[in-house]
Write a structure and sequence with these properties.
alpha+beta, 61 helices, about 10% strand, flat
């Protein structure tokens, strides 16, 4: 203790001292030695000083009055004298003290509000209650009296001291004292404080001067010393008592509480910050404990095994089976499965030895791997040892839980035994399940946490109801046992004292309190269905099922009926009758019994274990995308190849597949289902096999009834209880295995970074000392961003990692051949500066950050600079490397990077990190392993974010531990440079806390670690930690030289462990063949290091045998390692730096990987140019320019330029070299900066000669990668539709073997149909002002029509697009016709077109359509509806036949007919009549010009009916399709043609059926199919009259079922029929209309001015639906005026005859 105090006093001699000890110490138990005498002398003096103190006080007031701010009170002796302007009318604390002493009462004191708040914050009670603040008070006691100029400021708990005056301070008062005011606006005076240095360290002193620190940094060092902690415990009680006595009368002036001048770190920092920086009590305990830190902080701490126990053997066997033999459920890691197959039984012995090292000898994994190789190799690698270490924690946890549950079972068994023994003769209750030895044994044999959970739930099922009572009885027993123990102790004590033993025992018993305050453990109240069944005493009925759950489980395990079912002789209902009671019927009781039996089966551990194994072996996985997933999971998604899976065995899941599927399921993109039914051992259903194992194989009715109940119980147990739980458990296991695979990939990625050794210079400049790399490597690094507006930076880093110089290069990215002269000049200036920089700094290597492809150009520029130096300055050829800048970019933006280089820009920090990475990757990457956990910012794996942060940190830490202990840590270099201190935490045996304490100790003492022995003598390291870490801490013995008087052990610079130093010396002596009396081991070692080849002659095997004989164990491998170390001390075992391969360089510069950029990937590219093949001279000579006859211009045959007025200009075009040649392809640029090329043959599936017809510069195109050229950084692409669609899956990622293509095709078809339906249902809202227009849908229109009158009209948007409208009018109740209107001449998408077309008829506006088209049809329909024989049958033929037959029965002599509106054919009416015995149905079509029946037009209904009655026996027109393809009533029906809406609008435009029927008309019957062709055979088409203008051609519709031969035959039949009916008709060309007013077919008058001329007289068959027809009038129309309706297109090719 004294040594500690003296050393602390010496170090803090120049620091500001804290306040003296409190004045009154009445109960001090252990005083500090250096303070005892002073405190006794000052005790009485300070009481007097309190009374005589005047109004002037030295204690400075806080510079700031804000709450909780740190003051500069600890910055040295700060004294001031009060000035007059500081005084105000309020009394000071000393005045109040005098008044209180004279009056003997308390006086209310008026204080500043803000200061009062500060006082409250730092009150006595808080200080007393806060144990952390105690440390500061103890520190004050340690340094009392150390300086006359110490700080006077202190807390209220400190005793007042004499006011010390400093005249020098009087003149330093500030004139601005009154500027700082309190809450009431009154000035708070403060004084400038004269500071004296408190730190010996210049940096700390500078920081104190700038920031005014409030605490002593040595607090961090002191906190952690054992003596310091001991003293704290001694002074704690005394400190609290002193505060209570004197706190009330100790005040500072102006009512401000005095506080310690140095605030404790525990007051300044949040607890979370202290925990983060490892300054809590727990951290201090870990620092002091002599156990490796990682073993202490493990979730399950390392515990030694009792001597003589077989636990290690059991644990080794368990770890071998669980970690090395037991296969995982999935094939997550194929490499691990291969290693598993190579394991042998000898591994168990090695595992047991490793466990002994870990648990009994507290040796960490790296120590075992490096210094105990003989006991673990070759079976166990270092990663295997870490697995053993991990599974040891699992074993200990499982063992503890098993012991707890075993204790619970034994207590329950004792409880049951006691309960039975209360009445031994009574039978055992039927509902009591006795705990047997088998239950205890089953628990002891539990191997996994899942099995333990099964046993626990089984226990709760049967015994949870008895737990509260058992707990009460157990507590009473424990209480009784404790009482007997106390009575026994009292008897023994009484006998020793000669007293009455029984009286003493009785006194103890009498003193026992009667009330038991013990808190009972509350158990969950079980009120579920099973508990209700148990309370109903149905369990005896359950036992009659014939098998116990244990017996059934054994049957399932063995897969045969090991136990026969005991059949109950009576039927189930009779067996249930005694249990009915008030619970209803026997059937209800049986239902409860089945449930109870099912639950018991489901909770049987053996059955659950068997089912668990079966599920994991046979379970399958099915995956289906959600509607959202169908849209979002494209071929760039990670789950594209697994979007549809059908019964994929979970055993076949590999890698991170299940994690990807789970992520997609969490995002609602996929639905994952684990099979509910698994395959049986012999059949397709495992459930059915299990049912058979619980049944009696008999055919009696009673047996079958019981078998049904047993089957129900098994089904309930499996499908409702066990299997859902096991599937959730399996899901968790699969997810955990996938995450472990990802973690392993992350560790592998980190290993690839850390395994690289420092760069070794390959320059052959041995004679030049300037280029010698023995003292370190000088590295130059260049970093940039691909933005010309930002400067690039070059830096030179010295051999020790320090920044030597840097250079700003603002124009490095410019091109040297730039057309801009200024850019060329700036570029040359940068290159000149760079060349001079290289010449001046002489780097051994130059590294360029691989940010983008520009790195290649920069490398070329730097190579030119080096080449010029080689030629001009005899400079060596410096190697230039491009390196991945991922790590350096993270460092540049990290907190550590900003703290290291605060004033430098990010790009320069990146360059510095890049250079340091070349010097030592391990050291540089470890810089981010601080408390900020910035090491997690690296991208190790695309799915690393799915891992728990703690798991990823643990994996990263283990990889660092492996690599750091492989390389070793030079503590002196780490402390000297400030870099590498993070590495020390990964040294075996140490950790962040122990490494932190070690570094601070050396910094505090300002000395070096001269030998490994000082780890014990100076650092006070315990033997366990020393053994673990000493071999991995290396000391550069050559650098120590003569700077120390301590003994230099050359082996401290090697991997040889101190425990084997003697063997190394022995080997050196033997190799040099010294005699024993002449042997000087130290000299021999130095000599052998100079000539290590002499060690080759040693017989190390014999040496190892001798050591083993002497009891040192097997050291054969260790001796060989010692010899290797003596050959090369601490040889770097890492992999030498290797320049990246072309593939790696491609990935570095493009930031891609083989998983993200591959052949077949679909990418988005921008067209940047067209490539041409320039024609050769021979081709130019043979060229044949072509002249365009229409324009008269000449065209180049190569580039197809066609604006040459003369042929000579084409040749001039050739001669001038202006012809670029024939286009060969398209140049594109991808998003990642790569250049791509699309050959002209891959541009489109169609032949392309000019690419500009397909693409333009700057256009974005979708293309698929065909080839990747990594050396040229280019790709070949294809934009052909066939390649993009890739129906044959040639380019897309390979599908999973269990991909469900059938389900995908089905969903694609369904989605396509849904899209088509949606497109038809979509209506674009229009801006049309008309009373009949409504922005509504088809369904809304029909609903609106229900309440409207017949003939009303609604105009609405069409589903066909923005250039269509639909006119809906009401034909009859429940029947509406929808007419398609095409618009032309639209101003915009929402306005109404200038001209409206219905088929071939043109209208100017909606009013004209309503007046001329809809209103006449509505009138004709109204006449039909009003007719006496009209029936509202909806056009249903069967109903019409019933009506006619009823009428026929009433009046057989009459031919009855009936008319009804056809609901399936809006606009047509069904005419049904019964000429003979069979009903005939024909359609009457309503048109604007009248009625159409049998291809005839009638002006009136009377005329129609009159003609019908006269000709009803005539056969209808032959070959006319009747009603085979009825038209749909909705415009968006599945088969609705895109070219029609109404029957009246279906008349082809080249005929006028009502007036001039002829062959042209006959050949165009109406067919309502969606593919109806509007075409007529050309042979049957009459010539168009010369006076009619030619109509524009329209593309005919798709082919239909009607062939041209049918049309021709129909025409001939119709001609024959008409010739028979109309004698005056001679030829089809001269056929006259049956109308009374006939119009000649070839009238010489202009049809537009003839009121009797049909509007559409003769048209070509190609102009059926477009082109403006002549303005002719119909027969029913009036002369055209500006207000009258226009005539409409007549006719409808509706089939009028029902062939059926």
């Amino acid at each position: 203790m004294a040594d500690f105090l003296e050393s602390e006093a010496e170090e803090s001699e120049v620091e500001s001292e804290d306040d003296e000890q409190p004045a009154k110490k009445p109960k001090r138990k252990a005083a500090v030695q250096s303070d005892d005498e002073d405190e006794e002398e000052e005790d009485d003096e300070e009481r007097l000083r309190e009374e005589l103190k005047d109004l002037i006080d030295d204690a400075p007031i806080e510079e700031s009055g804000s709450d909780g701010e740190d003051s500069d009170a600890s910055g040295g002796p700060k004294k001031r004298k009060k000035s007059d302007d500081e005084l105000d009318d309020r009394l000071e604390d000393e005045d109040y003290d005098l008044i209180e002493e004279n009056l003997g009462v308390k006086v209310a004191r008026n204080k500043f509000k803000r200061l009062r708040r500060l006082e409250d914050d730092d009150s006595d009670n808080e200080g007393a209650d806060d144990p952390e603040l105690e440390r500061e008070v103890i520190a004050e006691k340690l340094f009392v009296g150390g300086s006359d100029e110490e700080d006077e400021n202190r807390s209220e708990s400190a005793a007042p001291r004499d006011a010390e005056y400093d005249d020098d301070n009087e003149d330093m008062e500030s004139d601005a004292d009154d500027f700082i005011v309190d809450d009431n606006g009154r000035p708070i005076a403060d004084r400038k404080k004269k500071r004296k240095p408190i730190f010996t360290d210049a940096s700390l002193q500078e920081g104190q001067d700038i920031f005014g620190v409030d605490f002593d940094y040595d607090e961090f060092e002191k906190y952690g010393e054992e003596d310091y902690e001991d003293e704290e415990d001694e002074d704690l009680d005394e400190y609290l008592e002193d505060e209570e006595e004197e706190g009330e009368r100790r005040r500072t002036k102006k009512g401000k509480a005095k506080r310690p001048s140095k605030k404790s770190i525990f007051e300044i920092y949040e607890p979370s910050e202290l925990k983060r920086s490892h300054f809590t009590d727990l951290d201090n305990e870990i620092r002091k404990t002599d156990v490796p830190e990682r073993m202490q902080i493990r979730e399950v701490p390392i515990t030694p095994v009792e001597e003589g126990s077989t636990e290690l053997e059991d644990e080794a066997e368990w770890i071998y089976k669980q970690a090395f033999v037991k296969a995982p459920v999935s094939k997550a890691d194929s490499q691990e499965s291969r290693e598993r197959s190579r394991r042998s039984s000898s591994t168990v012995v090695k595992i047991r030895q490793a466990l002994d090292f870990m648990r009994n000898q507290t040796l960490e994994v790296p120590f075992i791997a490096f210094y105990r190789k003989e006991y673990v190799q070759p079976e166990l690698s270092i990663n295997d040892l870490w697995k053993v270490y991990k599974y040891d924690a699992k074993w200990c946890q499982l063992k503890q839980r098993k012991e707890n549950l075993l204790k619970l079972l034994e207590n329950m068994r004792d409880f049951q035994l006691d309960k039975i023994m209360q009445n031994p003769d009574a039978p055992i209750p039927e509902n009591m399940r006795l705990i047997k030895d088998e239950d205890i044994e089953r628990l002891k044999n539990v191997q996994t946490p899942e099995e333990l959970r099964d046993v626990h739930t089984h226990f709760l099922l049967y015994y949870s109801k008895e737990l509260p009572e058992m707990q009460k009885v157990q507590r009473a027993k424990e209480k009784k046992r404790e009482l007997e123990e106390r009575k026994r102790a009292a008897r023994e004590e009484a006998e020793k004292n000669g007293e009455d033993a029984e009286e003493a025992a009785a006194a103890v018993e009498a003193a026992e309190p009667e009330d038991d305050d013990h808190v009972e453990v509350k158990y969950a109240v079980r009120s579920g269905p099973y508990e209700l069944c148990r309370k109903a005493n149905i369990e005896p009925l359950v036992k009659k099922f014939g098998l116990t759950p244990e017996q059934f489980a054994e049957n399932v395990r063995d897969n045969y009926q090991r136990h026969e079912v005991e059949q109950e002789p009576i039927p189930p209902l009779e067996a249930a009758a005694p249990f009915v009671g008030a619970r209803g019927s026997a059937a209800e009781v049986l239902r409860l019994a089945v449930y109870m039996c099912g639950v018991q089966l489901a909770r049987e551990p053996l059955l659950r274990g068997t089912l668990r194994d079966a599920l994991r072996e046979r379970a399958t996985l099915s995956v289906r995308p959600t509607p959202r997933g169908l849209k979002e999971i494209d071929e760039s998604h990670v789950c594209f190849s697994m979007k549809y899976l059908k019964k994929k065995p979970v055993r076949d899941l590999t890698g991170d597949q299940f994690l990807k599927l789970t992520m997609a399921a969490d995002d609602k993109l996929l639905e994952i289902s684990i099979s509910e039914q698994i395959e049986g051992n012999t059949g397709p259903s495992y459930l059915e096999e299990l049912k058979q194992l619980y049944q009696k194989d008999e055919f009696a009715a009673t047996v079958e009834a019981w078998n049904e109940l047993r089957a129900e119980a098994v089904t309930l147990a499996l499908t409702k209880i066990v299997m859902p739980e096991l599937r959730r458990e399996l899901h968790a296991v699969l997810l955990q295995e996938a995450k472990e695979y990802v973690l392993k990939c992350c560790r592998r990625r980190l290993y690839d970074w850390l395994k690289v050794a420092p760069y070794e210079s390959r320059m052959n400049e041995d004679d030049d000392e300037e280029w010698d790399t023995s003292n370190g490597l000088r590295v130059m690094s260049i970093a940039y961003v691909p933005d010309r507006q930002q400067s690039a930076f070059a830096c030179a880093v010295g051999a020790g990692g320090e920044l030597a110089d840097h250079l700003r290069l603002p124009h490095l990215l410019l091109r040297r051949n730039s057309p801009n002269a200024l850019e060329r000049t700036n570029k040359d200036a940068d290159l000149t500066a760079l060349r001079r920089f290289i010449l001046r700094k002489k780097p051994h290597v130059i590294f360029i950050g691989g940010e983008s492809r520009e790195a290649l150009f920069i490398k070329g520029d730097v190579s030119d600079c080096v080449q010029q130096l080689v030629e001009d300055e005899q400079f060596p050829r410096i190697p230039i490397e491009i390196a991945d800048n991922h790590i350096s970019k993270i460092y540049a933006n990290s907190i550590r990077g900003r703290n290291d280089f605060k004033e430098y820009p990010d790009i320069l920090r990146e360059a510095i990190c890049q250079a340091r990475l070349a010097q030592d990757p391990l050291m540089e990457i470890s810089q981010l392993c601080g408390p900020d956990e910035e090491i997690l910012c690296f991208r190790y794996h695309p799915l690393q974010d799915q891992l728990a942060k703690e798991d990823l940190l643990e994996g990263i830490e283990l990889e660092f531990v492996n690599r750091v202990n492989e390389v070793g840590v030079d503590v002196n270099e780490a402390i000297l440079t400030g870099r590498g201190t993070e590495l020390l935490q990964f040294v075996c045996g140490l950790g962040p806390r122990k490494a932190q304490a070690l570094i601070k100790l050396f910094k505090q003492t300002n000395q070096k670690l001269e030998n490994r022995t000082q780890l014990v003598t100076v650092c006070h390291m315990g033997p366990k930690v020393f053994i673990n870490c000493s071999g991995f801490i290396k000391i550069d013995t050559n650098s120590l030289g003569d700077s120390t008087e301590a003994y230099i052990e050359v082996l401290d610079g090697s991997r040889v462990h101190p425990e084997t130093y003697e063997w190394a010396r022995k080997m050196a002596v033997d190799a040099l063949e010294y005699e024993d009396e002449d042997a000087n081991p130290a000299g021999a070692l130095e000599e052998i290091l100079e000539a290590p080849e002499r060690l080759k002659d040693l017989d190390l095997d014999a040496f190892a045998e001798e050591l083993e004989r002497q009891g040192f164990g097997n050291k054969s491998i260790t001796l060989y390692d010692i010899r290797a170390e003596l050959n090369s001390r601490y040889k770097d075992l890492r992999v030498s730096f290797r320049s990246p391969t072309p593939e790696e360089l491609f990935d570095i510069l493009t930031k891609e990987s083989p998983d993200s950029f591959f052949v077949g990937k679909m990418v988005l590219a921008t067209v940047v140019g067209i490539t041409h093949r320039k024609p050769q001279r021979e081709m130019l000579d043979q060229a044949n320019p072509v002249r365009n006859d229409e324009t008269g211009l000449w065209e180049c045959p190569f580039c197809h330029k066609n604006d040459f007025p003369e042929l000579s200009e084409v040749w001039n075009h050739f001669d001038a070299g202006a012809c670029p040649g024939q286009a060969t392809g398209v140049r594109v640029r991808l998003d990642n900066g790569l250049s791509g090329y699309i050959h002209i043959k891959n541009l489109s599936d169609r032949h392309v000669t000019d690419p500009t017809e397909r693409v333009r510069i700057g256009q974005l195109v979708q293309c698929r990668i065909l080839k990747i050229d990594v050396e040229r950084f280019s790709v070949d692409c294809s934009s052909k539709t066939s390649d993009l669609r890739d129906k044959n899956n040639e380019w897309r990622p390979a599908r999973d073997p269990y991909y469900d293509q059938e389900s995908e095709d089905k969903d694609v078809r369904k989605d396509t149909e849904a899209k088509q339906t949606k497109e038809r249902m979509q209506y674009v809202k229009r801006v049309i002002v008309h009373p009949s227009f409504h922005n509504i849908s088809f369904a809304e229109a029909e609903k609106l029509m229900e309440n409207m009158a017949q003939g009303e009209v609604i105009v609405r948007p069409s589903s066909k697009g923005q250039d269509h409208l639909t006119v809906t009018w009401k034909v009859a109740d429940g029947i509406c016709q929808h007419i398609d209107v095409r618009e032309e001449g639209k101003e915009n998408a929402f306005s109404l077109g200038r001209s409206l077309w219905i088929q071939g008829s043109e209208f100017e506006d909606l009013d004209e359509i309503i007046a001329r088209y809809v209103t006449p049809m509505a009138g004709h329909a109204r006449d039909l509806i009003a007719y006496k024989y009209y029936k509202p049958l909806g056009g249903m033929r069967d109903k019409a036949e019933e009506v006619i037959k009823d009428e026929k029965a009433k009046n057989p002599n009459k031919i009855h007919y009936v008319i009804s509106a056809a609901k399936n054919h809006p606009g047509r009416f069904l005419l049904s009549y019964l000429p003979r015995s069979r009903c005939t149905h024909e359609y009457i079509s309503v048109t604007p010009d009248g009625y159409k029946f049998r291809q005839k037009m009638f002006d009136s209904l009377g005329g129609l009916l009159k003609w019908f009655k006269e000709h009803f026996r005539d056969p209808p027109p032959s070959n006319t399709p009747a009603a085979r393809t009825p038209a749909l009533r909705t415009p968006h029906g599945g088969l609705t043609s895109a070219l029609y809406h109404t029957p009246a609008a279906h008349t082809p435009a080249f005929h006028t059926p009502a007036h001039t029927p002829g062959p042209a008309y006959i050949n165009t019957p109406y067919t309502p199919s969606a593919q109806t062709p509007y075409m007529t055979p050309f042979a049957a088409t009459p010539r168009q009259p010369e006076f009619l203008p030619p109509a524009p051609r329209h593309k005919p519709a798709l082919a239909a079922y009607t062939e041209p031969s049918d049309w021709q035959k129909a025409a001939e039949d119709w001609v024959r029929h008409r010739a028979r009916d109309t004698p005056g008709a001679a030829t089809p060309g001269s056929v006259r209309t049956p109308s009374a007013s006939r119009t000649p077919r070839h009238d010489a008058r202009t049809p537009r001015h003839d009121a009797r001329t049909p509007r559409h007289e003769v048209r070509t068959p190609h102009a059926h639906g477009s082109g403006r027809s002549s303005r002719a009038h119909s027969v029913r129309s009036t002369p055209h005026t500006n207000t009258s309706p226009r005539s409409m297109s007549l006719g409808d090719a509706t089939p009028l005859y029902d062939e059926n």
